[in-house]
């Protein structure tokens, strides 16, 4: 579900009893920084900041609503937009059954739903049935691909304000976020209403108030004879409603792509081997993108949005690194094939340099590669707390900007701009890191640092991945 990007003009605030106002109350209650909320309002094109023509107003484009989430791309300070998301719990099957049964028991509300409307009166009906239809402050979880660690960042806040406007325009989007599409809700309300009407008619017949029996073909008295076979319905009755059955569930994620088929050799066309190579890469990327869309949760409360964009906009060098790191036909650090060497030469790099970059990409995607390629000075906060945690465990580390190097072991931790710790190992040979003129920080010419092991938010956990606790 999408909504067109809106212009920079400010819009009136939602009324207190609207779907959008309820969403904003929950979002603002979940926020830990009101300053970022103000920036988010400006980015979304609402509030006084937008009225004054604040930079970035109207920056939210193409919001998409799905089960348990709403996401959109938000233009920030860089040319390429950030991917922001809000997640919320879905209702269980039992909760949906309770809510829709309560709706079907109220003919006016049920008729409105079947006509395509979703009145705000559904909220108290759900509340009376013990169902919380609207999210609370503790239900909403923001995520964004930007480096800001705010909760929420200004991009997620902008999406939150845009979602408030979206819900006022189309409140069915909230039901989809809660786990049911509009078509499925209307179909179930229609089914429950029909069952309820059938029970009412049966009750009337048993009390003697039913319609007179149909007369036989030869009976001149009584109601006209119905020539339809028993148990049938007219086509006009069947297709008179706009309610359609719900769409089937998405197909499961396909298996990991295997070797592609054989391509023909055609004059003037790319070689069959090159086509097969590119087709295999396209299949892997397509599966990765699909898994990000279908993913509900990674088990740790994080979503795909806050991690790596499955289809990032990359430079030629970065796309070459991605290809070297993820293509099923390319080797990693161990042995370098002729194809790998040709790929490195195509971007003016040597195979060893590309292999090291590919290892960083496998470790953390674009963020992992940034840690390999550049050093920086992290601000006070997480970096200092991580260093203190290591010192408390007796691990003596030298400091060089964002790098912590063990004084007696060939291991190093690098702190990334995403707030994660990336472990490295010195492959220059046995002995303590930084010996043979490499310098106390382990960054000299004799050190040969390679990304190794998964990154982690905790430095001790990152070292544990190297087996160096």
From TrEMBL:
* PANTHER family for the chain: SLR1429 PROTEIN
Where do the record's region annotations for Disordered lie?
Answer: 193-232, 424-469
**Which keywords accompany this UniProt record?**
Metal-binding, Zinc, Zinc-finger
Name the domain of life: Bacteria
What GO molecular function annotation could you give as one example from this UniProt entry?
zinc ion binding
Quote the biased-composition stretches of kind Gly residues, using this chain's numbering. 431-442
Q: Which InterPro entries match?
A: Znf_SWIM
Q: Show the ranges annotated as biased composition (Basic and acidic residues).
A: 216-229
Q: Where in the numbering of this chain does the SWIM-type domain appear?
A: 129-164
Protein name, as recorded:
SWIM zinc finger
Classification via Pfam families:
SWIM
Question: Is the keyword Metal-binding in the record?
Answer: yes
């Amino acid at each position: 579900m999408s909504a067109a990007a809106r212009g920079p003009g400010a819009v009136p605030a939602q009324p207190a009893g609207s779907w959008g106002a309820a969403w904003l109350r929950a979002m603002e209650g979940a926020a830990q920084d009101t300053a970022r909320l103000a920036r988010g309002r400006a980015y979304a094109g609402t509030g006084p900041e937008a009225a004054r023509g604040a930079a970035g107003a109207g920056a939210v484009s193409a919001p998409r609503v799905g089960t348990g989430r709403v996401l959109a791309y938000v233009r920030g300070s860089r040319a390429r937009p950030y991917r922001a998301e809000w997640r919320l719990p879905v209702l269980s099957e039992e909760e949906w059954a309770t809510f829709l049964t309560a709706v079907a028991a109220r003919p006016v509300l049920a008729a409105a739903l079947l006509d395509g409307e979703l009145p705000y009166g559904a909220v108290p009906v759900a509340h009376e049935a013990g169902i919380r239809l609207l999210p609370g402050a503790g239900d909403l979880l923001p995520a964004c691909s930007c480096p800001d660690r705010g909760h929420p960042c200004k991009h997620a806040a902008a999406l939150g304000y845009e979602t408030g406007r979206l819900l006022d325009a189309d409140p069915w989007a909230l039901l989809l976020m809660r786990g049911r599409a509009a078509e499925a809700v209307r179909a179930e309300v229609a089914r429950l209403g029909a069952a309820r009407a059938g029970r009412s008619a049966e009750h009337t017949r048993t009390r003697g108030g039913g319609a007179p029996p149909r007369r036989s073909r030869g009976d001149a008295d009584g109601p006209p004879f119905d020539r339809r076979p028993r148990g049938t319905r007219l086509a006009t009755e069947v297709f008179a409603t706009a309610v359609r059955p719900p769409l089937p569930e998405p197909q499961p994620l396909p298996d990991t792509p295997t070797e592609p088929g054989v391509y023909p050799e055609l004059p003037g066309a790319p070689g069959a081997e090159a086509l097969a190579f590119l087709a295999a890469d396209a299949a892997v990327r397509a599966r990765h993108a699909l898994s990000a869309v279908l993913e509900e949760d990674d088990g740790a409360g994080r979503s795909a949005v806050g991690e790596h964009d499955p289809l990032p906009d990359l430079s030629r060098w970065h796309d070459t690194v991605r290809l070297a790191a993820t293509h099923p036909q390319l080797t990693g650090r161990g042995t370098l094939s002729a194809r790998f060497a040709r790929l490195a030469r195509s971007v003016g790099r040597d195979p060893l340099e590309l292999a090291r970059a590919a290892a960083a990409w496998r470790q953390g995607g674009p963020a992992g590669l940034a840690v390999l390629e550049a050093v920086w000075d992290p601000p006070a906060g997480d970096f200092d707390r991580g260093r203190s945690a290591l010192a408390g465990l007796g691990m003596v580390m030298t400091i060089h900007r964002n790098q912590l190097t063990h004084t007696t072991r060939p291991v190093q931790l690098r702190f990334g701009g995403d707030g994660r710790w990336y472990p490295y190992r010195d492959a220059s040979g046995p002995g303590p890191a930084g010996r043979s003129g490499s310098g106390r920080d382990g960054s000299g010419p004799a050190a040969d640092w390679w990304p190794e092991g998964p990154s982690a938010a905790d430095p001790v956990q990152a070292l544990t991945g190297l087996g160096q606790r």
